[in-house]
Each structure stands twice: as C-alpha cells, then as structure tokens.
Automatic annotation (TrEMBL):
One of its GO terms (molecular function) is 2-methylcitrate dehydratase activity. Residues 21-268 form the MmgE/PrpD N-terminal domain. The keyword Lyase applies. Residues 290-478 form the MmgE/PrpD C-terminal domain. It holds the Pfam family MmgE_PrpD_N. Its EC number is 4.2.1.79. Monomer. It catalyses: (2S,3S)-2-methylcitrate = 2-methyl-cis-aconitate + H2O. Belongs to the PrpD family. It is an enzyme of class 4 (lyase). This is 2-methylcitrate dehydratase. The keyword S-adenosyl-L-methionine does not apply.
Length: 508
C-alpha cells in the first residue's frame, strides 16, 4: 500500500534522523526488489519506442548535433563497455554520463514524448536515457533495465504529485535528478545508503530557475533534462565511491524546501510505494500525438476539428476574437497570461512557439493538422493570415478548468478547456475538450500500434527499413534482453544522415 510521507523543514538542532528524510525514503523504494507488473513492463516498452521516435526526428537538429559531438569527443570510461549514442553505430561508444547527455537532448528537443502533470510538470521519459546509458556501460540485462526505469518513473511522478517547483520559478528537472539517480540505483542493485547519497547530490546539483522556459526560450530547454540525467550518473558514481552529500537535502534549515520552495514553515505529503508494493506510476502518464507542450495537445485536436467542420474559421477576416478558457497553468505558462510578447512574435524560436498556445491554435485551426517540422517553419509562422488570426487569440483562466487540472480523480482530471469564438458578424461558436484524443480517456487512446506508427513516421526519413525493424523487434522483447542485446538498444542513422548535420566545434 502507498505510504504518505510528511515532509517539513527541520532545524539543525532537531537532528532529523536519516530514516525520517525524504531522500532516504526514496532510496528505500529504489532498493526494494519488488517485481515489475506486466502492464508496467508493457508501458515501459511503449515509452522506450516513443523516446526513440522523437530522438530519430531530432537527429540533425543543431542542439542535438552539438550534444552528440560533445559526447563523441569523450572516450569510454575505463570501468565499463561504454554507452551508445543515438544515430551513431552501435560500436561507437562514449562514457555513460555523456551518452545520457546526448541522448537526453535528442529525446527532449522536439518536446514530443511523454508527460505527467500534477502539482508540478514533468516528462518522465527523461529518466530513460541515463538509466539505459548506465545499463549498457555495466552490461546489465533487460530485466534490470526494466526495474530501473520503473523506479525512475515512480519517484519523479510521486514528487510531481506532491511538490510544486514552478510556483517558486524552479525548473521541473529538480524532480528528475533524484528520480534518475534512484532508477540507476535500482538498475545496479545498490543498497539504500548509496542511493540516498546519490539522490541528495542529484537534487543539490539540478535545482535551477525556470528562466529556461520563459520569454525567448533558448536551446537549453532541451539540454536541461539531459543535464539532470548526466548529474544523476555522476552522483551515483560518487556515492558508489563512498562519498556523502548535503543532508538533509530537502528538510534542512538551509535546504531546498526552506530556501527554494515554500519556506521554513512549509510541509508536503509525498506518496511513495510501501515495502513490497509494485511501482505503477508510469501507468498514470501519457504521451503526445503532437510535437508541442502537453497543454497544447487537446487544443490542437479541438482546433483541427473546428477547422474541418467550419472552414470559414480559418480566415481571420471572419473572426473578431478567440478566447481559450482554460487552467491556470495553460493561461500563465503557454497562454497570454505569461505576458511574453515573444508568444505573438512571428520571428520567435521554435522553442518559444511550442510554448505559445495562441500560435498553436491558429496554425492547427488553419491547417487541420500538426507537423513536428512544418508547423514551426519560419515561413509558416510568418504567413500574414496566420499572424492576423494568431493575434486575435487570447487565453483566460477558468476556475473550473484549473480545479479539473489539479483533480486527483483520473476520470475528472483535464488539460483542455472551452473555446469561445466571436465572429465578425457578432455571432459566437462555443466548444470544449477535456483531454487530448491520444490520452487514455480521449477519443483515440494511444496503444502499442500507435507508438509503433509514430516511430515509423518519425524514423523513416533517417533510418533504413532494416534498422527500423531491428530496433522494434529488440525493444518489444525488452525484459528478455541479454546484456549484449541491451547494448544494441539504439537507433543507427542511415549513411550520410549525421554527416549532413551541423558539427559545431567547442572546447573538447
């Protein structure tokens, strides 16, 4: 059964026992050798395929190329076999922390993989690159890899359920560092003491401000989770050598909660699996059908439906205003409530546009579709009729949609809202959507065949047909894979694909 851990700030003279600390409780969950349930294994396979899909689609993008080049400029560390880098031949290896870095950037670059939203936001699939990199380096088998990934998802999502970071402008990857460290600990079968020290360091080194997702959003947006994964690998290495970390990292009077979150009088209730309880959190997460911030998923589906049903809505001359009544998060983070002029700027970066729901709704309404490349092209963003329509779209917080966003009832939890379109003639059109079509409760919930179709769509331009089939066959046998086969769990680009990508030079 789930155990709720009450977490508060403690004065130094209270001498909070290690067993009472959240980092220790996380470590105990990670060290619990409980079996992974079949449904969880099945979903882990789906998400390994999903990560490879979006990584394939981003192989030639500059941030991914830069991270890949950084990784390839580092040799394999001496105590293992090294780790593969997305796109490169399986024989080309690098040190695991650098593989976690390069592959983490590839997975996150297009903002196109899985999501979980509660008190905080997260892309729990970000746990997979560092855990897989370590598995390859040490020669772990598929069963151990599955156990590690189950822990990574569990810990990050449990922290996300309880502790808001964005309220204090701390980036959400502060929950990822501890979860990836815990997942690596499970993978390696480390004792709770070692995992505890790794969790503390991983948290300490991955707390940063949310400016990475504000204003003119930079390429660091994709690098931030990769950095957290890299820090998790390094934290585990250090802890395995017997070194200690700041403690109590969450509860200390100069710790994360006291000075970065809700302050010295704060407390949180964090749900974690009890001893012997299977780690099921991944089943509550959901992936993306569209390459855009998760709160945009349902709005894309509604916009393309409205555009198909009422083609006249695509012409800005027919529109007076469009107001999207939605949750606090959607309004203030990707909506007009952010007060970011860049969200209405046709020359804004791709990273900014995929965090602009006015832009996304306008393009999906006009095109009746969403494409991970074409929908963000500078010429698409600058199209005059799109710019005119885009500037007529605003968002407004609606208390009921905010309540549903935060609901703990999965049947009620919603990430959409209500659109009110006022036409030029004064008439109105009102429609609403609660969840994306691909959501488990949506019109077309994603299943294995959808993950495979997404992989084929995104991989076909850059992988050979033989490579596509090889990877899919391997991934779908994940829990049965030998250590050698785990070492081949990679996507290898067609000849010439990586040669056509940018190859920026740096210090290394």
């Amino acid at each position: 059964m789930t155990i709720t851990h009450h977490v508060r700030v403690h004065r130094s003279d209270e001498n909070l026992a290690r067993e009472g600390q959240l980092a220790w409780q996380i470590a105990e969950v990670a060290a619990d050798p409980v079996a992974v349930e079949a449904a969880v294994v099945d979903m882990i396979i789906n998400r390994v395929i999903d990560n490879a899909s979006v990584a394939a689609a981003s192989l030639t993008r500059r941030p991914v190329s830069a991270a890949r080049q950084q990784a390839l400029d580092h040799a394999v560390s001496v105590s293992g076999g090294g780790s593969t880098v997305f796109g490169c031949a399986n024989e080309r290896r690098t040190s695991p922390e650098w593989a976690a870095w390069a592959n983490g950037v590839a997975v996150r670059e297009l903002d196109y993989h899985d999501t979980f939203l509660a008190a905080e936001y997260s892309h729990p699939g970000d746990n997979i690159p560092p855990i897989l990199a370590v598995a390859q380096h040490v020669g772990a088998d598929g069963a151990a890899l599955v156990r590690g990934i189950a822990t990574g998802y569990e810990i990050q999502m449990d922290l996300v359920r309880a502790i808001s970071l964005h309220k204090h402008k701390i980036d959400h990857v502060a929950h990822l560092g501890p979860s990836a460290a815990a997942g690596i600990g499970t993978l390696l079968g480390l004792p709770a003491e070692t995992i505890y020290q790794a969790v503390g360091q991983a948290l300490h080194t991955t707390t940063a401000t949310r400016q990475s997702r504000k204003g003119e959003i930079s390429t660091w947006k994709a690098h931030a989770p990769a950095f957290a994964g890299k820090m998790a690998v390094e934290a585990v290495d250090r802890a395995m050598r017997g070194e200690t970390s700041p403690s109590p990292i969450y509860e200390g009077e100069d710790g994360v909660i006291a000075w970065m979150l809700d302050g010295k009088d704060a407390s949180y209730d964090v749900p974690l699996p009890g001893p012997g309880e299977p780690k099921r959190a991944i089943l509550d997460s959901y992936t993306k059908e569209h390459s855009a911030e998760y709160q945009a998923q349902a709005w894309i589906d509604l916009a393309r439906k409205l555009g198909a049903e009422r083609p006249e809505l695509r012409d800005p001359a027919n529109i007076a205003t469009i107001v999207l009544h939605t949750s606090h998060h959607t309004h203030y983070v990707i909506g007009s409530g952010a007060n970011d002029p860049q969200k209405y700027d046709p020359t804004a970066s791709r990273e900014t546009l995929d965090h602009s729901i006015p832009y996304i709704f306008a393009v999906a309404l006009q095109d009746g579709a969403w494409h991970h490349v074409d929908s963000y092209l500078p010429e698409r963003a600058a199209r005059p009729d799109t710019v005119e329509l885009w500037h007529k779209i605003t968002t407004a917080e609606d208390a009921e949609w905010t309540r549903r966003y935060h609901s703990e009832d999965p049947d009620e939890k919603a990430f959409g809202g209500r659109v009110e379109i006022t036409l030029a003639d004064g008439s109105t059109i009102v429609d609403e959507i609660a969840v994306a079509d691909a959501h488990p409760l949506g019109a077309r919930p994603f299943a294995r065949e959808d993950y495979i179709r997404k992989f084929r769509l995104l991989a076909e331009p850059v992988l050979t047909p033989e490579e596509i089939e090889r990877f899919l066959a391997l991934a779908q046998r994940l829990p049965e894979l030998s250590a050698d086969e785990v070492g081949q769990l990679n996507i290898v680009a067609r000849p010439g694909v990586l040669a056509s990508a940018p190859a920026p030079k740096g210090l290394f």
